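subagent[fold] <- orchestrator: predict structure for attached chain, return tokens only, no commentary.
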Amino acid sequence: MITMFTQSLRLLLIAAASLLLMVGCNQADNSESSLASQALGTDKLAQQAAPALPDLQLETLEGRSAHLSAYVGTPVVLNLWATWCPPCRREMPVLEQAQTVFPDVAFVLVNQGESVQQAKAFLESEGLNLTDVLLDPTSEAMATMRTGGLPTTFFFNAQGRMVDVHLGEITMAELEDKISRHF
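subagent[fold] -> orchestrator:
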């Protein structure tokens, strides 16, 4: 998934850059403002090609239905995890801290393939206070997002377009870097 996405994005950006070069060569005005507006067009094109936040129907720890599409309009850090996964367990305090450090970003933690009892027991035993923990008992998110490993953390802008992905345990420094670059 990551390789295919990276290759597709790279081809799209090369095509967009080539188009910009051709347009730039055919225009009489090559001022900085003209080039800046062309660059903004490339960014917009790349964002339109980026995968969207999937509209999965999940469940809250309280048993209510939840849709990922409800988060469109705010930047989202979407983390796929499980209680049996050691790197997932280690990064949970980092994600809890990040919720406080970045209050304008939604940290959505989607448990993969486990029951509400398993997820709640883990969170309680670790003393974690996470605000947006959802359950995906059939691991549909992993299939939809085409990831084969946990943890995987996806970054979606406020328009619901993927802007980055991180496979494996994530640190606070990596979170801060990605959030500062994309949000």
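orchestrator: received. Logging for downstream: The helical segments are 2-26, 32-49, 86-101, 116-126, 140-145, 172-182. Strands lie at 57-60, 65-67, 76-81, 106-112, 132-136, 152-156, 162-167.
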